[in-house]
From TrEMBL:
Keywords: mRNA processing, mRNA splicing, Nucleus, Repeat, Spliceosome. Belongs to the SF3B1 family. This is Phosphatase PP2A regulatory subunit A/Splicing factor 3B subunit 1-like HEAT repeat domain-containing protein. One of its GO terms (biological process) is spliceosomal complex assembly. GO terms for molecular function: mRNA binding. It is found in: Nucleus. Pfam families: PPP2R1A-like_HEAT. Residues 804-875 form the Phosphatase PP2A regulatory subunit A/Splicing factor 3B subunit 1-like HEAT repeat domain. The keyword Repeat applies.
Length: 1027
């Protein structure tokens, strides 16, 4: 390309090259600089000024300026000042002699001899050794950079300790008072408070978990006693320490949060200090620290008020450091969310309209930019009412003299439009022409911002039918600029173009020649090796934009253009192409049916080529082949041989990763291979035999994938075909899988249990019952697994085995397992018993459970109750009703047991019974639930949180069964009891009843016609109205 064209496209115009004289001198802040500069601010505050003092100082400054201006007006006719003179050597010598006495080296030393001559007789020299020494106080906000007076031991490499807590170098600087003296040596109350707070903060920051809990509790209860001056004087300098660990900074943030919430309006003089110390956390990489910083700033804004916040942060609006200005904008965004945009909006308008400071205008625009993040949330519910005012105040900034202000404004308009999407285009109508003209007047970074802004506005116009003509007009101009900038080497421009293409309403009707004007230039400039080797974010944007353009224009054309890249020599480009093809096939499978036979062949060939040539195995290649096969359906029939040959060849590879990926591919496409073969399952039989012979794999990851592939292949057979399977037969396959169950690898265990469960579900009669019992014993060990999926699969397999051979033998094995000491194993066994009861009718299991409950062991009894809980949770109400009378004596014994856990689990069983039978029982069954209510209600006074939660849930379920009328008769006496500890749980139950049955409770309220000694009638006649 000639140099002239490059200069024309990517250099600024002559009339734009002179702007930004101020901002060009400022170095651009990159991402890593924020981490380094986050904690470099200093807190130098010797005197705390209130809001009133600050306003008086501002008033005095304005008065001085007014008097000076008035003086200059009256002294306009004064004589002109004499011209500047050149000093001669003689004048310089005379000046030096005249001021020579000011030299410190020539001053007279006040020795004892001189003082005796100057002072009159009678003065004596004071003896400092006999004078009482006071401990030097420590500065409130400024810790000394180097602590003096410490022993030499502190300067050695070994870290000092305080009460067994090792101190770091930064801790020595901030907590030197703890090492220098004891609290008994301090006389001033303020020093004692500071000493005690340092002790608490150090224990919370560096102590053990128990020590930290005690310190946090002490701090929460003594915040008001210590006072804000001492608290913030100790903690805030620590927050600005750059070498703090994330855990320590998190603890200090919690301390500040508790102090701010409890001190309330007392923090007003310290508003700026708190914000300066906490605001750097808003840009921290840890999301927890960012959320804590937001909560603290929100609490400060509520306690200090908007006026104090504005006064404190006003100097930071036009600060020389861009980092400080960005933090200030984020803080005001949080303040607006907390106090309401209506209160903050007038101040933001005044800042943006500032004519003296371009930094202030830029900060005001950034405030609205951050408002979109904090208030928008994608729905614009909070921003939409104020959108016209925001657009009106931002509109002049689009034509500002400074490029950085215009760029920030355009980006803010883009974010505003995204926040209120798809509404609000009427408010943006006034800036459409300005944004369009900005495309012609900017290059580089400014052009990227205006592209984003106009793209967001066009997306809004597309959702309003009255703007259809505007949409086509501005879309045509924007696409002309986008296609021209496809060749731009700037990454920011590339990201702006790609994000804009994702939102533009392009279509075949609006762009008739879309192939030559859009698709070909797009693939020529974005599907390159340079882009593929760039950041993952840019590659993701290219893939998403490609899929969006393909769905809007033509999937067939896009697939034909993507296929050559899947065979490219660059692996990153192949991966991008395969990922785009996978996404298109998964989202628009019907469009792939329109592909020609040649395109279909080359597509599968390209996908298999990329699958074979990968140097680092990635799952996207397998997903792409699966998505393509799913989209093409029966059209892959001519290519089954190619697929199988590729898979079998890679299954014999020496690398375990290659064999693993091939087995996973078989598992994903097994159903398509079975549907597209016409040899009565002969191909799948051979594939099953090949996988069966591969069960001797030594690598557990590969073995797990082979078992998963074997499960998928066997799952394609019908039941009759599966029973007639001879090589290998099912009776041969299961004994081969039984030893593999003992493999400790989680993937092998999960896939093997699923395959065993499938065999038990489909053709269990082909296996001897003794073999199933052997499998059951091996499955018991699977209940100890740390992975939940394995335990779930094992429990389900127990149900299938019990259904196949009967529940008696399986149940005996499970009941014996309830006597172990490991809690997780007992819980999983109880779940398995519940599943067996659900699979095999409950009457086959319930007698054995009730008999086992008589065994005098709490673990066994608790396990039985858990099994009953899971069983009645799975059953329907009509089936649970039949076992209600039979199970009542057992539950009565459990609800009156002395063990809390016993009563807790029994309450869970009653809850499931009550909810299941709520609508299918009559009066006879209602008396049973009333009996349960009498047994459960005394447990309402339990103090254990786990027990009381289950008890209240049980009482709520019983209220549904017995009805609110009878239930409230139990509640009324407790609501007005003399003891508070009695009233509290009853009111908790009443609140839950009022929420769920407020209408049904009205007829059962107690009637109070009149009170004693009162003449007022409280009769409510509406309660006597019957319909």
């Amino acid at each position: 390309m000639p140099k002239k064209i490059l200069s024309e496209n990517y250099t600024q115009q002559a009339q734009l090259s002179h702007e930004d004289t101020y901002f060009e001198k400022q170095p651009q802040i990159i991402k890593h600089d924020y981490r380094q500069r986050a904690y470099t601010r200093q807190l130098i505050f010797q005197k705390e000024e209130t809001y009133k003092d600050k306003m008086e100082a501002i008033s005095n400054l304005r008065e001085k300026k007014r008097l000076k201006r008035q003086h200059n007006d009256y002294s306009g006719n004064d004589e002109p000042l004499p011209k500047r003179q050149v000093l001669t050597d003689a004048m310089i010598d005379f000046t030096s002699k005249k001021g020579g006495t000011s030299d410190s080296s020539k001053t007279l030393a006040l020795t004892d001899h001189i003082l005796e001559r100057l002072l009159p007789a009678g003065y004596i020299k004071a003896n400092l050794a006999n004078e009482k020494k006071h401990v030097a106080t420590v500065q409130v906000y400024v810790p000394p950079p180097e602590v003096t007076g410490l022993d030499l031991q502190l300067s050695r490499d070994t870290a000092p300790e305080y009460q067994g807590i090792p101190l770091k170098k930064e801790d020595v600087k901030h907590f030197s008072l703890l090492l220098q003296t004891d609290i008994e040596d301090l006389e001033l109350l303020q020093d004692k408070k500071r000493y005690k707070l340092m002790d608490i903060v150090l224990k919370a920051k560096r102590g053990s978990p128990q020590m930290r809990k005690k310190a946090m509790r002490w701090f929460s209860s003594h915040v008001s006693e210590v006072g804000p001056e001492v608290i913030f004087g100790v903690i805030l300098p620590l927050m600005l320490e750059p070498d703090l660990e994330d855990m320590e900074r998190h603890i200090l943030a919690k301390l500040i949060d508790r102090a701010v919430h409890q001190l309330g309006s007392e923090i007003k003089p310290y508003t700026h200090k708190i914000v300066a110390a906490v605001s750097p956390l808003l840009m921290d990489e840890d999301i927890l620290l960012r959320l804590e910083a937001r909560d603290i700033i929100a609490a400060v804004s509520r306690s200090a008020g908007l006026a104090n916040i504005i006064t404190s942060l006003r100097p930071d609006l036009d600060h020389s450091d861009e980092f400080v200005r960005n933090l200030t904008a984020r803080v005001f965004g949080i303040v607006a969310k907390t106090l309401g945009l209506l209160k903050v909006l007038p101040f933001v308008k005044a800042v943006i309209k500032s004519k003296k400071s371009p930094q202030a205008r830029h900060t005001g625009i950034r405030i609205i930019h951050n408002l979109c993040f904090t208030l928008g949330g994608g729905n614009g519910a909070s921003i939409l009412p104020y959108l016209p005012q925001l657009v009106e105040v931002l509109h002049p900034a689009l034509e500002d003299d400074l490029l950085q202000v215009r760029v920030a404004t355009a980006n803010t308009f883009s974010l505003l439009a995204d926040s209120v999407y798809p509404y609000g285009i009427d408010s943006f109508e006034s800036i459409l022409e300005t944004a369009r003209s900005g495309l012609k007047q900017h290059r580089g970074r400014g052009l990227a911002a205006f592209i984003r802004a106009l793209g967001s506005l066009i997306a809004l116009m597309n959702h309003n039918p009255s703007y259809e003509e505007y949409t086509n007009f501005y879309l045509h101009d924007l696409l002309h600029v986008l296609t021209r900038e496809f060749r731009s080497p700037d990454d920011d421009m590339k990201r702006a173009i790609l994000r804009t293409l994702l939102r533009l309403p392009v279509s075949r009707s609006s762009i008739p020649d879309y192939v030559e004007s859009i698709l070909q230039p797009f693939f020529l400039n974005f599907w390159t090796r340079k882009v593929a080797s760039d950041s993952a974010q840019l590659c993701r944007l290219v893939i998403d934009a490609t899929c969006e353009l393909a769905q809007r224009l033509s999937i067939t054309e896009a697939v034909e253009m993507l296929i050559p890249f899947a065979k490219n020599a660059n692996e990153n480009l192949r991966r991008m192409s395969v990922e785009a093809l996978s996404k298109l096939a998964a989202s628009s499978p019907r469009a792939f049916l329109e592909l020609s036979d040649r395109t279909e062949t080359t597509l599968l060939d390209a996908a298999l080529y990329a699958f074979q040539e990968q140097s680092q195995p990635k799952r996207i290649y397998q997903s792409a082949i699966f998505s393509i096969c799913k989209a093409l359906q029966s059209r892959i029939k001519p290519h089954v041989t190619v697929l199988l040959s590729t898979v079998l060849f890679r299954m014999k590879n020496q690398e375990p990763e290659v064999r693993l990926q091939a087995a996973d591919l078989v598992a994903s496409i097994a159903q398509f291979l079975s549907d597209c073969t016409d040899d009565d399952g002969l191909t799948m039989r051979k594939l099953v035999l090949f996988l069966y012979e591969s069960l001797g794999e030594v690598y557990p990851e590969v073995l797990g994938s082979i078992i998963g592939a074997l499960h998928s292949c066997i799952g394609t057979f019908r039941k009759d075909t599966l029973q007639n399977l001879d090589n290998p037969s099912i009776s041969t396959l299961l004994p081969t899988l039984t030893p593999i169950l003992k493999n400790r690898h989680e993937k092998v265990q999960e896939n093997c249990i699923k395959l065993v469960g499938f065999i038990a579900r489909t053709c269990a009669e082909s296996i001897n019952s003794k073999e199933w019992m052997r499998v059951s014993f091996d499955l018991l060990d699977m209940l100890k697994s740390q992975r939940k999926q394995i335990r779930v699969a094992a429990n389900a397999t127990f149900g299938h085995i019990a259904n196949a051979i009967g529940p008696q033998d399986v149940l005996a094995t499970l009941l014996n397992n309830l006597r172990v000491q490991e809690r997780q194993l007992r819980v999983c066994t109880a779940v398995a018993i519940g599943i067996v009861a659900d699979t095999c009718v409950p009457f086959t299991v319930l007698p054995a459970l009730m008999n086992e409950y008589s065994f005098p062991d709490k673990n066994v009894q608790n396990g039985i109750l858990k099994s009953l809980s899971f069983m009645f949770e799975y059953l329907e109400g009509s089936m649970s009703r039949d076992y209600l009378f039979a199970i009542t004596p057992l539950l009565q014994n459990a609800l009156t047991d002395r063990d809390q856990v016993h009563r807790q689990i029994a309450a869970v069983v009653v809850r499931h019974l009550a909810l299941n039978c709520a609508s299918v029982v009559d009066d006879d069954y209602g008396e049973t639930f009333l009996h349960f209510l009498n047994l459960v209600l005394p447990n309402l006074y339990e103090s254990s949180p786990h027990v009381i939660i289950r008890i209240i849930e049980c009482i709520d379920a019983l209220r549904i069964s017995v009805g609110p009328g009878i239930f409230m008769n139990y509640i009324w006496p407790g609501l007005f009891h003399a003891a508070r500890k009695v009233r509290t749980p009853f009111w908790r139950v009443y609140d839950a009843a009022y929420i769920q049955h407020s209408d049904a409770m009205v007829p059962y309220y107690p009637r109070i016609e009149s009170l004693p000694d009162k003449s007022v009638s409280y009769t409510v006649h509406e309660l006597d109205v019957w319909i």
